[in-house]
Automatic annotation (TrEMBL):
Domain spans labelled AraC effector-binding: 5-153
A Pfam family matched in the record: GyrI-like
Matching InterPro entries: AraC_E-bd, GyrI-like, Reg_factor_effector_dom_sf, YobU-like_regulator
Name this polypeptide is given: AraC family transcriptional regulator
Protein's organism: Antrihabitans cavernicola
Highest taxon in the source lineage: Bacteria
Gene3D superfamilies (alphabetical): Regulatory factor, effector binding domain
Amino acid sequence: MTETLTPRLETAEPFVVAGLSGRYTHTTAAAIPELWTSLDDCIDDIPNRVGDFTYGAAANFHDDGFDYVAGVEVSSASGLPSRFRSIDIPAGNYAVFTHDGPIRQLPHTYARIRNEWMPTSGFAVVGPEFERYGTDSDGAKDSYTVEIWLPVEKSS
């Protein structure tokens, strides 16, 4: 498994991710793969889909956890069936990391980013973050590429 702890910096335009959602803590985040399994059964029911990527978007980080949406980019959350939720991803500057390996090792990559890169980076995370999965994603494969996009600004 490889993960790149030297991110590339990207500027992203705003977009909306819509899909299935849940509220998680760092303890319960191990249940997020179940959300993805459920999404497989209803992904074609999400209206206004844009592109072929799938996304895991996390927002509303507080002491009691965070909101997570497993879904797709949509042109509008208008008319979204009630079982789906959306997260607005704002325009901004992002540090983009690459995880290349088993999906079950993704939490390890996040831990390295938070514990090794963040403390010395000179950046602060400032909003919703997201994972972008390619069109060839298959969680059962040993080699799996995921981009982790963290919204950043220079810390003071």
